[in-house]
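A reminder before we start the practical. When you read a complex entry, don't treat the lines as separate problems. The point of joint prediction is that each chain is placed relative to the others, so the output describes one connected object in space. Small molecules and nucleic acid strands, if listed, are placed in the same frame. In the example below there are two entries. Take a minute to note the order of the lines before looking further.
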Amino acid sequence: MNKIYKGDVEITTSNQEEWNKKLLGVEEITGYLYIYSQAKLGSLKTVGRDLYINSQAKLEAGSLKTVGGYLYINSQAKLGSLKTVGRYLYIYSQTKLGSLKTVGGDLYINSQAKLGSLKTVGGNLSINSQAKLGSLKTVGGYLYINSQAKLGSLKTVGRDLYINSKIEPRLARWLLLRYAEKKKWYLSDEANISLLTAKLKNAIYRIDNVDFSYDLFNKVRKDKLTAEEVFKIENLEQRRIAYTRMDKIKMKALDSYKVLDICRDDKDKKMEILEFKVDGYQKPFRYLHCADASTDREYHVETAAFKCWEAKNKSFGLKDAEWIEEW
Amino acid sequence: MRGDVIMKTDKIKVFRQGDILYIPDQENYSVIIPSDLKKADTDVIIRGSGGHDHKVVNCEIYFKQSGEFIIGYLKANKDARVLHAEHGNIVKGKLLKEGILPEGVYEIRRQVEFLNTDEMRPVLD
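Here is the predicted structure of the whole assembly.
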């Protein structure tokens, strides 16, 4: 007869001895199992709801076959027999789940993971760290690939494709063959050239999470724009990325290029006013070159002002201001 | 140099989150929410690209239909915060970054660019 513990279990440093004794021989916990400390649960086969393994914890549950709810792995876990996770699986720590066959919900891989037997992910699959998923056949939802992944057996993806990293050439070919016209694609400049040059009809092209038209995407990623063309980009974020990717030697090609003013803002970040001329325009072009308070990203904001602070204030319609806080 | 401390106290005090500016009601700059504006049924000030919205918590938003800089008003209640994916302080366990706004009434402004053609254009992102 199965030995069942009815209810939730939370194992901490202060109660770990008590729980390890109490759960000796227990094969099923009907509720949640939270591990904040060390636990050896050698007989445990089923957790009815979520299993949470904290970053400082260690769990040995070599017989565990089923987690009914969510499974969070933030630390060392020996779960060599686990076959099914009913809902989401989050992996934040190096893990080997060699027997796992099914994840009912989403699967997030944020640390090296070996999931050699996994066949089905019911929801979305998000790969943010090296992952070996050699047996995976089905992803029910979206597929997000942000890191190297081995998905040699993949047969079906239910929803859109997000490729932000180089994937195996064979996988890229297979995805193109099967889904070129059937799916919406989101491709970053880090994706395989074969995907970027496939002229997909239903694709969004991104660099550093900013969307671009296909033409501009290619010009930016190949650094084919002149400095003048970079400054003419209307979208500030696209302009920022194009400038970041541009070889700065091109700035020397700007006609009558000058720095009119340099100073530091309240966060001690450099600001400057740049000016240059463009053929066909009577007036010179002027930009406030500044850094974002939170991210340090460099922006060029077009201005008519000659001084940095004047340009910054005027961009919000102010003559002068005391910048209490900037984020 | 930006002037001395005495000069600073005469300036309008402002809070900025990326391309959005919040000007509180203060001694030398009066902010009153126009009575004809209706409270908006949203917590989003402006939608940014890539889903990077400017959101608020514990606030009421009143949008203004036209204007070059001023896009609306904000009534910040207790524990008011402005949220964004990139602009703000990192808060452990939360996806969005945060800035804290003191309780009060604010004018909301949007950053613009002054173009070579003598036109103005809201910052596009």
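Discuss with your neighbour: The mean pLDDT of chain A is 94. What might explain this?
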